[in-house]
Design brief:
Order of helices and strands: EHEHEEEEHHHHHEEHEEHEHH
Strand order of the largest sheet: 3-2-1-4-5-6
Helix content: 25-40%
CATH architecture of the largest domain: Alpha-Beta Complex
Largest sheet: 6 strands, parallel
Number of domains: 2
Structural class: alpha/beta
Oligomer: single chain
Radius of gyration: 19 Å
Number of strands: 11
Shape: globular
CATH superfamily of the largest domain: inorganic pyrophosphatase (n-terminal core)
């Protein structure tokens, strides 16, 4: 296990699929041996469904410390120190594929960083396959397609680009499973929204820290996501999640794929004011309704100040 690929704690489908896809690119990326994928946290149901469809085994979860003999690490879908497993040593990171702003670039001096404005990290990895002329196994191609579909919300997310659509289409020429993938992921999102409020709010949270403030950003992407605010236990679950993670501020983005809009929930008045100034959102009881789909990556993370994100 000299070479490891990983992503942020509690990864989404894009991060997991991207890590697994890097295994077949190990040599092209300069690793002498095949990458071993090690993840941390919980893998969501959508990712489980994708890997079952692709016929892939899910990677190992959890590691208390970096094993002896590891000499290089590849990161996918993040380059934020506060989001990484505790065992990741930044000095060992050699390659990063990401598409998020406000990363801790300076902390990875040995890394080649590919960080571009596309809808999914899997798009960047698929493009690397195409550029290298490397053969992609059907299972890996299916996983990459699933990562792209998931992170672009089936190409309706505002961060979607033509590169995402082109990469998906080219992969579909290899697999022919695009329609099947769409159906499976849609069913998973619809089923997910029927879970408990606490499970829903805790399913996808990214944490940003500096010396004084810890900010969590929870994102829920599902048909009917905005209706969660009508649940009697919404704010109780909100407070419980904030306390569980030791947060000073929790921002929740309920991205409703049916209504093509979001509801933003945040009890902190400073962040309410920040969102009002930037997007003219009007908060009532800690809630604000948007006129379009909001995403954490494109609408919330860019509002982090240097003090907020630790840079």
């Amino acid at each position: 296990m000299a070479y490891i690929a990983t992503t942020y704690v509690n990864p989404d489908t894009d991060g997991v699929a991207g890590c697994v896809a890097l295994r077949e690119l190990s040599r092209e990326l300069g690793f002498r041996e095949r990458l071993t994928v090690i993840l941390d946290g919980t893998i969501n149901s959508e990712t489980h469904a994708l890997f079952a469809l692709a016929g892939l085994e899910l990677p190992s979860i959890g590691m208390a410390a970096l094993p002896q003999g590891v000499i290089a690490v590849a990161l996918v879908d993040t380059h934020h120190l506060s989001q990484l497993p505790t065992w990741v040593a930044p000095a060992l990171v050699k390659v990063i594929f990401d598409h998020h702003s406000h990363g801790d670039t300076n902390f990875f001096p040995a890394a080649t960083i590919v960080n571009e404005k596309v809808g999914a990290a899997c798009t960047l990895i698929a493009e690397r396959y195409f550029e290298a002329g490397s053969q992609i196994s059907p299972a890996t191609a299916t996983a990459l397609q699933g990562g792209i579909l998931s992170n672009t919300l089936d190409f309706v997310a505002p961060s979607t680009t033509e590169r995402d659509r082109a990469a998906f289409a080219r992969l579909d020429e290899m697999t022919g499973r695009g329609a099947e993938l769409r159906q499976v992921l849609r069913e998973e999102r619809a089923a997910f929204i029927n879970g408990t409020t606490s499970d829903i709010l805790s399913s996808d949270v990214k944490v940003f820290r500096d010396s004084t403030t810890t900010i969590g950003m929870s994102q829920v992407e599902a048909p009917g996501a905005s209706l969660i605010i009508q649940r009697d236990d919404f704010w109780e679950s909100y407070d419980r999640e904030s306390a569980r993670l030791g947060l000073d501020i929790l921002v929740v983005n309920l991205a409703d794929l049916t209504a093509s809009m979001s509801v933003i929930a945040v009890s902190d008045r400073r962040w309410q004011q920040r969102l009002n100034l930037e997007y003219r959102l009007v908060f009532d009881g800690g809630l604000a309704w948007t006129s379009e789909l909001f995403l954490r990556k494109s609408h919330l993370v860019p509002l982090l100040t240097h003090k907020d994100d630790g840079r």
